[in-house]
Design brief:
This protein is an all-alpha fold and 467 residues long. It is built from 18 helices and two strands. Strands 1-2 form a two-stranded antiparallel ribbon. The longest helix is centred in the C-terminal third of the chain and has 28 residues.
């Protein structure tokens, strides 16, 4: 999207606000900075002493980027105030800073300028109707309804585990928001390992993760589709868009492959001595949560988890969720378009097709760029950690370092135990990777790049041998 005209009197704000990509980055950076200041306060810590700027920055970035990697135990190292700050950052980062800002403007009945609405459209995906406000309204309603339903279900499931009504309610709300936003923060010291055999809790968390990871556009498309078939049944027949079909197809395949793979590899490792039903539930839960949520019910420590499982989890984390969702990663549609392009190449076709539609060539170019840039970020982050964390490599090894970097980029939060042992440099590298993974590589690059106006000429094509 091009630049928006902003009066020169706004100074440096003009440079930020006239580009939607820059306003997205600025919003996330502002939230991270505010969270860092609040979490660095003494009363945010359970000990009454400040945790320091570095740990506060790491935790704030992890919360805003809905990652879940922690250098401080959320349950024991933060006070109630600190936990509430983390929860607020998760909600802001999950739903989107710009969506929250737009909601605030609607609540106070302020009319936004056309310029700001255009910028907002560049950050919050609008649907086929073209208006941004219906999308913002739907996002807020969906978030409130799903998180409230999740909290109620978790409360019913956990009520017997808590002596206090309010403590159970607090835990239920916290984990519902964290799961829907695909954050992975937990108030239990062992994450959710204690509920590995609890089918109801696991399925509730999985449902919240999947709904949050599908994307708001897909959720609205499914709502309109269901409304027509169940209530309307007249006029133009409702159909799912190609985007929705691709998201649902890739999501199902990834969940199925992850479930089968984890079940087979962990049956001879961490799940060897557990009943078959519990083994299947743990494999399903881990397959779902690897899609950028970060909860775990199996031990991922080096030497305990099977290396094949770690590799499979890294693939799932790298792909992540879907566009316009609370999840990170390169996104399911990116993988789907790339696979479609590969199939077209194998068939000798110069046109990629899916669901009776052609894929524009510029989309394939964008997908290739995203995947290559994402791999570059993961490799660069892994390399830097291998340099800065060489003192801990003997304990964790190369696989743990790459696992941690991939988890940070995919904003997942799964860890093989390296994060709490990171040096100061490591605690700065991982947040940088989390930020790039959450905001998006294209957003980061376009926010810094100059806008090139289209030209009326084209250079002659050249034959280049590849492959």
């Amino acid at each position: 999207m091009g630049e928006v005209s902003i009066p020169k009197k706004y100074g440096i704000l003009r440079i930020i606000l006239r580009r939607p990509y820059r306003i997205a980055m600025a919003s996330f950076l502002a939230a991270i900075a505010a969270g860092t200041l609040l979490l660095a306060l003494p009363w945010s810590s359970s000990t009454g002493r400040s945790v320091g700027v570095v740990d506060a920055l790491f935790t704030s970035t992890s919360a805003v980027c809905v990652t879940g990697l922690v250098v401080r135990n959320t349950a024991t190292d933060w006070s109630l105030f600190g936990q509430l700050v983390i929860l607020a950052l998760i909600q802001a980062g999950g739903v989107g800073i710009m969506t929250a800002y737009a909601l605030l403007a609607v609540m106070v009945r302020q009319r936004l300028s056309m310029g700001f609405e255009r910028m907002l459209t560049g950050v919050v995906p609008a649907g086929p109707a073209g208006g941004i406000w219906p999308t913002v309204k739907f996002i807020c309603i969906l978030t409130a309804v799903v998180e409230a339903a999740g909290a109620v279900c978790l409360f019913v499931s956990w009520r017997s585990d808590f002596d206090s009504f309010w403590r159970c309610a607090y835990f239920s709300v916290f984990h519902s928001i964290s799961a829907f936003c695909n954050a992975g923060f937990s108030l239990f010291s062992d994450n959710l390992v204690r509920y590995r055999a609890d089918g109801l809790v696991c399925l509730i968390i999985c449902a919240l993760i999947v709904v949050g990871g599908l994307g708001f556009l897909v959720a609205r498309d499914l709502k309109d589709f269901a409304e027509w078939w169940l209530l309307v049944r007249r006029g133009k027949r409702a159909r799912l868009t190609t985007h929705t079909k691709l998201v649902l197809t890739v999501t199902f395949l990834l969940l199925f492959v992850g479930f089968v793979g984890i079940y087979l590899t962990e049956s001879a490792a961490t799940l060897r001595d557990v009943p078959t039903s519990e083994r299947m539930l743990a494999a399903l839960f881990q397959s779902v949560t690897a899609r950028t949520a970060g909860y775990n019910t199996i031990d991922l420590s080096p030497g305990v988890v099977a290396p094949a499982t770690a590799l499979l989890l890294m693939v799932l984390m790298f792909v992540g969720g879907s566009p316009g969702s609370t999840a990170g990663g390169v996104k399911t549609t990116t993988l789907g378009v790339m696979v479609t392009s590969i199939i077209a190449t194998v068939r000798g076709s110069d046109r990629a097709e899916m669901f009776d539609h052609s894929v524009p060539q510029q989309v394939i170019h964008r997908v290739a760029s995203i995947i290559l840039l994402a791999l570059g970020v993961v490799v660069a982050g892994t390399f830097l950690l291998l340099v800065t964390e060489r003192n801990t490599l003997g304990q964790f090894g190369f696989l743990s370092v790459m696992f941690e970097t991939t988890s940070a980029f995919g904003t997942v939060g799964l860890s093989m135990g390296l994060t709490p042992h990171l040096s100061v440099w490591g605690r700065l590298i991982i947040p940088a990777v989390m930020f790039v993974g959450r905001v998006g590589l294209i957003t980061v690059l376009l926010s810094a790049a100059r806008v090139h106006r289209p030209v009326s000429y084209m250079y002659p094509p050249s034959d280049i041998m590849v492959g």
